[in-house]
Amino acid sequence: MDILTYHIAVIPMSRVLHYALLTPLLLSVLFVIGSEIERYLARIPNLPGPRGLPLVGSLPWLWGKVHAEQYRQWAARYGDVFQVQLGQRTVVVVNSSSAARALFLGQRETTNSRPLFYVLHQKVQSGSVTSIGTSPWDESCKKRRKVAATALNKAAVASYFPIINLESRAFVADILEASQESESHTVDFRDAVRKFAINMVLTLNYGMRVESVKELHSNEIIKEIVHVETEISRLRDITRNYENYIPVLRPIYSLAARLRLYDGDYLPSIGRRRTGYHRTLLGKLRQAVATGTDRPCIQGNVLRDPDSRGLGEAEILSVSLSMMAGADTSQPTVAWAILLLARRPDVQARAYRAIADADPELLASPDVAHSRVEYIDAFTKEILRYFTALKIALPRATHDDLGATWQGATIPPKTALFLNSWACSRDETLYPDANIFAPERWLTADGAHSHQFAFGIGGRMCPASHLAHKALYAVFLHLFAHFEVLPAPAAGDDGDVFVDDALEGVAEKEQFVSTPRAVAARLVPRDRARTAEMLAKAAAVEAAAGTRTGTGTVIGTGLSSREKWWNNGRESTDGRGNEAE
Question: What InterPro entries does the database record attribute to this sequence (predicted)?
């Protein structure tokens, strides 16, 4: 026996166990120390903010809370602009209207990009087509955004009035039908609201639409769209996808996937499925364009002259992805409005009088998008301000090569910036008595020109803001004209007292898009015969006008749930038999 073998043989087993336990502990301590050094170096000098804990940063203080409200409270301590470390990532949060203007307007060139997130950009999209709203700023993004902005400016929106009128009427018809199913006229408005939101983006982008709320549950392609878009919204959530901020979770999830404890292909499959049905819809639109049976729409215009737009196939697809994302915030906005009106008969009475005073014929008119009733316009703005469905706007980032500055602090390149739209919308310097719902604030000389932070601010604010506002305006005008909104029976003395509270009434406090917990209200027709007559006349006009100017192509026709796009999204149906790049 040599001396080495002898020494190994006589080492007590207790010492072996001691080293076996001590080694991973020491490695863990070294890992935490290294992470803390990295976190310390990532902090921005001269910019205040909470310190946080090792590995997780300030995430524990956000758990179970509405993040935007917590940031607003921190702003009272740290200032309008502060840094927060979410796990290992440093984020700058902007919490006031003046700070937002200074950074996103005054330093537009340096704050115009988007950050990359591990879950969305590496797992879900993984180098594939990205929407405009989640793309970093480059020449391709600039071209795509220019196309979207041109298609969605004020002049273009006026050309979409027939679509807005059609879908707002359809919303009235769906609510009217649902109200007949209950003696108390109690309506679960989720399907009607979802159909309105989805149809707006489908009709505008593809000239196709869902004919009935029943198709939300029976039409395979619509069910797929609803499911996948809901998942996309969850996966681009900047509040709860902790892999974005805590890198050590990534190998843990990878190991879990290898052990079959977790479906490692689920996230990439969502990205493929989304790309798949958009390619299918583009293919159907190409066929309609080729035969001259398409309904005028944004992508139809692009397909007719793609070279003049300077867009490739992937960039055309990106515009489609971006349009579909618009349904994400319009749904909860309409839902919040219904819940608020159920408790505000005074607002309903004033709105009805305002319509009658502006033009009595609007009360029975099928076409209202062209009108401008000042109080309804103000109500629409106030709903967007008061509830702010996207309380933290889609995150910005400083330019890859340029940083920004704020009161002596230099914000480095590629730093994530969160615009706290909720805090800006409750900024007392811009909105006196900001916690009170008051449409009248928009009717004053100063209020009429106040910025609407629900759509963001600066060069990357939502390009569809004019369209979204007009679509909501039309729905609300029809709602006031044809229904009286009352609380649902369950919302009495023993009901949810926070049903219309923008913070306490949310379904999930950490949810990126603020969706209300309540889903029902009593929608009592003011004059059922008048409403039915209005809808019948409009339907007759649509039938006479035909597909090009009427209801458009009914989506799902000729599609099978077994098509290849359903499974992987790699097959293209571009109308020419070619695979899309």
Answer: Cyt_P450, Cyt_P450_CS, Cyt_P450_E_grp-I, Cyt_P450_sf, Cytochrome_P450_fung
